[in-house]
Amino acid sequence: MRSSLSLNPDNFTFPFLFKSCGSLSLISLGRVLHALAATLGFVSNIFVSNSLIAFYARCSEISVAHQVFDEMLERDAISWNSLIAAYSQNYHPAGALDVFAHMMMHENPKPDRVTIVNVLPACGTLRAGRSGCEIHAYTMRHGLSEDVLVGNALIDMYAKCELMGEALSVFQNMGVKDIVSWNSIVTGLSQNGRCEEAMKLMAKMEALKIGLNVITWSAVISGYAQRGRGTEALRVFREMQVARAEPNHVTLISLLSACSSAGALLHGREIHAYITKFGWCDNLMVKNALIDTYAKCRDYEHALRLFDSVAFTERNVVTWTVMIGGYAQNGHANEALQFFSQMLTAKASPNAFTISCALIACAHLSALRIGKQIHAFVFRHRVSALLCLMGACSELHKKFLKGTEQQNLGHGGKYGRIKKKEIVEVHDIELNLWIISGQWDWATGAKLSMACFTDIFSQVIDLY
After folding, report:
1. Architecture of domain 193-296
2. What is the per-residue pLDDT across 211-222, written as a single tens digit (0 to 9) for each?
3. Confidence (pTM)
4. Do 326 and 338 contact (CB within 8 A), yes or no?
């Protein structure tokens, strides 16, 4: 640029260049431009530094973004907001809260509405309700709570922290509500098992001529499906079709989950036909959910056909786990372990719930030797790093192995004393860990494979 035009870039040029590099994820070019800006002495300019933070955040280089921030001689609200957003949007919520806490220690600049909107999702992800309440109090003291974006962020945060009373209070006291406000409260109610209240709000939206969109419908369908209320989820989908609303992949995955929980193979096939008709078969998440549905409903022919249709290089941890879990759930332990072996041969990395499903298959066969081999694999490949973070899950596997070993000595009942609620709590921890670390494939896998795990929990107890 310099040689061809014989012009030097200035502090107005670099922010545009860094923004373009961030939008296109051109990390290498951005680094070259960063070096050029440093050579020309522009990194001390606050506008250039702020654009650098945003660039590195877009490229998920959080540590470099923070380094740029630390080296700034002068910081404004945009500097702080950019760094908080960098952590929050890259699934490092603890980092976002830490930066916010440091910002609060400074007299200037004060957090503004952009700060609040960026930091509240971090509270929701961590289920840090107390921190969220403190931030809410700050917004009220400084006149920010009337802002619709702040209100929407507060509703979402409280809902994720399972504080629906506070979420409803924020919603009811909002002077101005947009479609996001309504969708946020409907989603929050649905996620917290209050689907009937969500449906009443949807009826109110229709009465007020507020258009229901795919997010509104999907939220309620997902809420019913997550609680095993497949019949209600399917009923809402039929209402959605009558309303001529087009589903997205989230809707379809939730519907398939509902069919799995209800054992509704016929409905699953109907949704499969819908998926084929409207071209969703190429979506891997939808295809994984289809495999899961057929496997849980014991239609292994269709499950295998779909599994084989996924290109070898495209199979992810979810694809393998739903097959392993589907076989293990229905007592086909040999087939489950064969798939687990194939997964390892394919050099696919199992997650904690893949391991759990494989161990359940071992329990069905009373195969202590294979169980120990899987346990050894876990430690060799550091899958156990997650289990170590989840003490309860680690103890679960220890009790499994001990219970299997002592089965012939009359102590097999130990496993039966493990409560299903404890496993669900462990699942929530793992799911949050994957979300926090940005591992969305693993998070989706945790959701699907946990469904397999809970379905066969009672069968495991029966074995002992």
Report:
1. Alpha Horseshoe (1.25)
2. 899 999 999 999
3. 0.71
4. no
